[in-house]
Write a structure and sequence with these properties.
The chain is α/β, with parallel strands linked by helices and about 350 residues long. The protein has two domains: about 120 residues, 3-Layer(aba) Sandwich (Rossmann fold), CATH 3.40.50; about 140 residues, 3-Layer(aba) Sandwich (Rossmann fold), CATH 3.40.50. Helix content is about 45%, strand content about 15%. The protein is built from 14 helices and nine strands. A five-stranded parallel β-sheet has the order 2-1-3-4-5, with helices on both faces. It has a four-stranded parallel β-sheet with strand order 7-6-8-9, sandwiched between helices. Helix 3 packs antiparallel against helix 9 and helix 11 runs parallel beside helix 14.
Length: about 350
């Protein structure tokens, strides 16, 4: 089979993007480094995640996690819609382009004078030269190779929140998650054949089809992440839907055009942490789609907590998008130039 031919995979994956995916647990462990600590404890009214549009888009999954945990709220703001607050906030800023990063950081300090501002940077010289009394620049070397890696940014925000005393210590949970991910990657990695590999099989189901990823509760934004990765990595069309919103309009549209119904697939992200009413709704929606001639499938999250299941499906989604790119014959690292 195509996905079991390692030579073919490496020929298409010219930049060895696969090695980045395989290394995700090691990257998380490296970020959760003991040398970053803070004797200063901070109790902000909220955490503001600010920066480039892409960073803000990625941060929706971080926002969803904090909301599900009932901790301090997350506010996402890009450069054009920063909200003027006078309360104490933790402001985390990131823009991979790093253009005028110091000026933009100072703008944040002026806008949030009572807040603590931390700028993420893959540049060690910037972190050494630009730290001021008002701005902390945190060097995250892992961002150099993967500027918008969700697993990196997600871990950094949790790390900062943990070390500043905003959320309880979760070092033990992160350690267990990394161990679980290493074992899980053995199951879905290139070396495991398609018959035993759920990520390869899922990608195979998606080839040539109109893909809809469906999430509920804390997996709603994970569904968006899957959609984004399928778009950007495999260059395939995909959309995402939330439950219960999918019932309001989307299900009314599964009639026309009839020629599209047989090539559509709705993939549901499932968790054993879902509430009973969520499980019931998912079952009813899947039954309705199947009775309307629309294909469905499901991916069940692994792990015993919201955090572990979120990381599990982040990695799963990365691999599915990767294999779909290979099946499409497209280099996963290829970035088309869009002039707009």
């Amino acid at each position: 089979m195509l996905l079991d031919d390692l030579t073919n995979i490496l020929n298409i994956d010219s930049s060895n993007y696969h090695s980045i995916l395989r290394n995700i647990p090691n990257v998380i462990e490296a970020i959760w480094r003991p040398e970053f600590s803070s004797s200063e404890k901070f109790s902000p009214k909220a955490i503001i995640l600010a920066g480039s549009d892409k960073f803000c888009s990625i941060c929706t999954i971080i926002q969803s996690y904090f909301k599900s945990m009932g901790n301090v709220p997350i506010i996402i703001a890009n450069q054009v819609n920063l909200i003027d607050y006078t309360e104490e906030f933790l402001v985390i800023y990131y823009d991979a382009s790093e253009e005028h990063v110091t000026r933009k950081s100072l703008e944040l300090v002026r806008k949030y004078p009572k807040s603590k501002t931390i700028v993420l940077s893959p540049d060690p010289f910037l972190s050494e030269d630009q730290n001021t009394e008002k701005i902390d620049i945190l060097y995250v070397k892992e961002l150099k190779a993967r500027p918008y890696g969700l697993e990196i940014l997600f871990t950094v925000v949790i790390l900062l929140s943990n070390r500043l005393g905003i959320i309880p210590d979760c070092s033990g949970e992160i350690s267990n998650i990394c161990l679980e991910l290493k074992n899980f990657i053995k199951l879905i990695d290139c070396s495991n054949p398609t018959v035993k590999n759920p990520a390869k099989r899922m990608a195979g189901q998606m080839v040539g089809r109109l893909i809809v990823i469906v999430g509920s509760g804390f997996l709603s934004q994970v569904a968006k992440f899957w959609k984004d990765q399928i778009n950007s990595i495999s260059k395939s069309w995909a959309q995402y839907e939330f439950i219960p919103e999918i019932k309001i309009n989307t299900l009314k549209s599964v009639h026309f055009p009839e020629s599209m119904l047989s090539i559509s697939i709705f993939v549901f992200l499932i968790s054993d942490l879902h509430l009973p009413e969520e499980v019931f709704q998912i079952s009813k929606i899947k039954h309705y789609l199947l009775s309307s001639g629309v294909g469905t499938d499901e991916i069940r999250a692994r792990g015993d907590s919201i955090l572990s299941q979120t990381f599990n499906l982040i990695v799963f989604g990365e691999y599915v998008a990767y294999y779909l790119a290979i099946l499409n014959g497209i280099d996963p690292s290829f970035e088309p130039i869009l002039d707009y």
